[in-house]
Design a protein that fits this description.
2 domains, 38% helix, binds manganese (II) ion
């Protein structure tokens, strides 16, 4: 059920013990908005804890509170007044939904949110869930501590491509400016998050050998079957690297993570890629979306490329 920002603020005000979660395979916005909200609620004297059902990449250790992010433990039931699920639909929070016994307040900016939570506050115009948390703090007449601001700024910066993508609005920049005024050190965040091990950059170079053009050069893709993927140390950040290629409208990366299980990331310069992702049960944003295809690699590749072709023809 959809609720307003004011109602969302009222639900948070009324709760004392609050568990915060976000999507598995957590990114800067999932982690930044979760920790930012945690710091804010703790300042209000509430008991707030972040639980995410996945490993947290070490690059996020520059964020205050990183070391306090917990993982749900099987059979260890937690009773709380509220479970806040950030940047996600409920199907992607892993076992947190089983472990935490509380009404679910979902806060998100993905237009593909399934609206399955008890309460949902959705604002697809926000660049990041962290931008919504910023608005919530304002709605609740709160102030930003440096710790809170560092985390929210990280969410804003990462989801907007460091304030470069089309989702960057005057409101995003104003939020960023106010967080900077609260003490954010943007260089600490960017240097921390952009750290890569040597093997990872080398892995990227290996993965790039598999780059191909499709559909008259309008689509660039890297398709890695499981055997190839096993030989590559790391292929994180591949789609953002290839999307800059001149003349392309869409970038796609497909990785066969396990036999008959392929993960897909897409970036576009205008085409609504959620229309392609949702055909395969995925979701995301107009210019950045993803999905999983449970098919053998050759079939997954062919079906995805066909779906992209159809979407491009429908757009024309
Ligand atoms: Mn986000």
């Amino acid at each position: 059920m959809k609720i307003s920002l004011r109602e969302t603020a009222a639900k948070l005000s009324a709760a004392q013990k609050i568990i915060i979660t976000a999507h598995t395979n957590p990114d800067g916005d999932a982690i930044g908005s979760s920790l930012g909200l945690m710091h804010f609620l703790q300042e209000l004297g509430k008991e707030a804890q972040v639980l995410i059902d996945d490993d947290i990449p070490a690059i996020f250790d520059v964020l205050p509170g990183y070391e306090h992010i917990g993982k749900p433990e099987e059979g260890k039931i937690i009773a709380a007044d509220l479970l806040v699920a950030l940047d996600v639909s409920l199907d992607r929070i892993g076992s947190v939904s089983e472990v935490v016994k509380a009404p679910v307040l979902n806060i998100d900016h993905h237009i593909t949110n399934d609206d399955a939570a008890d309460m949902l506050y959705l604002d697809g115009t926000c660049a990041a869930t962290a931008e919504i948390i910023y608005q919530l703090v304002k709605e609740m007449k709160g102030t930003f501590t440096k710790d809170c601001a560092m985390c929210l700024y990280t969410g804003l910066a990462t989801d907007s491509g460091w304030f470069r993508y089309s989702n960057t609005t005057p409101a995003t920049m104003r939020a960023g400016a106010e967080l900077l005024a609260a003490g954010v050190e943007p260089n600490i965040i960017s240097e921390g998050l952009e750290r890569r091990p040597y093997e990872s950059v080398k892995g990227l170079a290996d993965a790039l050998q598999h780059m191909e053009l499709f559909h008259e050069g309008r689509v660039v893709g890297v398709f890695l079957d499981n055997a190839t993927l096993e030989t590559i140390e790391s292929s994180e950040g591949l789609v953002d690297m290839i999307r800059t290629i001149e003349g392309t409208e869409l970038a796609v990366v497909l990785k066969e993570k396990e036999k008959d299980f392929c993960r897909v990331s897409m970036r576009s310069k205008g085409l609504d890629v959620t229309k392609i992702a949702t055909q395969f049960g995925g979701g995301g944003h107009v210019r950045a979306a993803g999905c999983a295809i449970q098919k053998p690699f050759p079939e997954a590749k062919a079906e995805l490329l066909a779906a992209i072709r159809t979407a491009m023809e429908q757009q024309a």
